[in-house]
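Colleagues,

For the teaching module next term, I've prepared a clean inverse folding example: a structure given as tokens, and then the sequence designed for it. I'd like students to try predicting residues themselves before seeing the answer, so please don't circulate the second half yet.
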């Protein structure tokens, strides 16, 4: 199991749920599966993305897997609280999925590949358990797509700490821009990718709070101790960067970030 750079504490669990709530329409409006379809969600974590996935396709049967037993406990609690009854959870590693070949009609991965050092191998492991002609949907962010006002080199330096820590953990915080060639290299067919931009200003108070503050800035702020411990930055500089990121959420500030969503088909051969 590779290190998850954001950790598994209660604060990160809340951040994941805030992120999912803020981005549900942007990321999930066009992910709908037919009744009786079997879906594999890989890397479900605490169930933050499982809930909108299940709500969109209440007649589908979803199997959600994750390597963290503790996260799966939280996922079960969250889906139960949301009144969802079409999801089964199972502890499993993407590189060693405990399912027969061609078990599922479709697969879904959200914010998973960016944390892996072998994303092609992970996709091929997923393809093995999806039926020929079935689909694979992948959503990833790209920290290089972050733009904000007021501009701040301190904020950029704090973000760079997260990017570097993710790299050292074996991941890639810029993965979103590589989705098309990555899925093609994995052997998937009919690959299509669309950018999903989040733009935030004072006219969108729900995104100011839900995305700029509670999702992105909270994500960067969450690696403070790791950045200090790795000697990547001085504490005062990091804290100034976080302060400047929060400043983009004030009147007159703006924030922009782009996610990438890919659809592809498992080939017949």
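(Answer key — instructors only)
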């Amino acid at each position: 199991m590779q290190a998850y750079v954001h950790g598994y504490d209660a604060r990160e669990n809340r951040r994941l749920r805030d992120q999912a709530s803020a981005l549900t329409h942007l990321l999930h409006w066009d992910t709908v599966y037919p009744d009786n379809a079997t879906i594999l969600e890989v890397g479900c974590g605490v169930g933050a993305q499982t809930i909108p996935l299940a709500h969109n396709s209440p007649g589908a049967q979803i199997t959600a897997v994750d390597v963290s037993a503790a996260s799966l406990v939280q996922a079960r609690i969250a889906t139960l609280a949301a009144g969802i009854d079409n999801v089964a959870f199972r502890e499993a590693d993407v590189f060693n999925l405990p399912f027969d070949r061609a078990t599922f009609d479709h697969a879904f991965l959200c914010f998973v590949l960016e944390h892996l050092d072998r994303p092609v191998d992970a996709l091929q492991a997923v393809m093995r358990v999806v039926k020929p002609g079935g689909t694979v949907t992948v959503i990833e962010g790209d920290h290089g797509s972050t733009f904000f006002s007021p501009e701040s080199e301190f904020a950029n330096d704090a973000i760079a700490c997260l990017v570097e820590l993710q790299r050292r953990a074996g991941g890639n915080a810029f993965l979103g821009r590589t989705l098309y060639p990555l899925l093609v290299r994995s052997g998937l067919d009919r690959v299509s990718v669309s950018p999903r931009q989040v733009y935030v200003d004072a006219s969108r108070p729900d995104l100011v709070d839900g995305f700029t503050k509670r999702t992105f800035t909270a994500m960067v702020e969450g690696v403070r101790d790791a950045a200090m411990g790795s000697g990547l930055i001085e504490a005062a500089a990091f804290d100034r960067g976080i302060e400047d990121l929060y400043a983009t959420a004030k009147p007159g500030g703006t924030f922009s970030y782009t996610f990438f969503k890919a659809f592809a088909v498992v080939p017949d051969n």
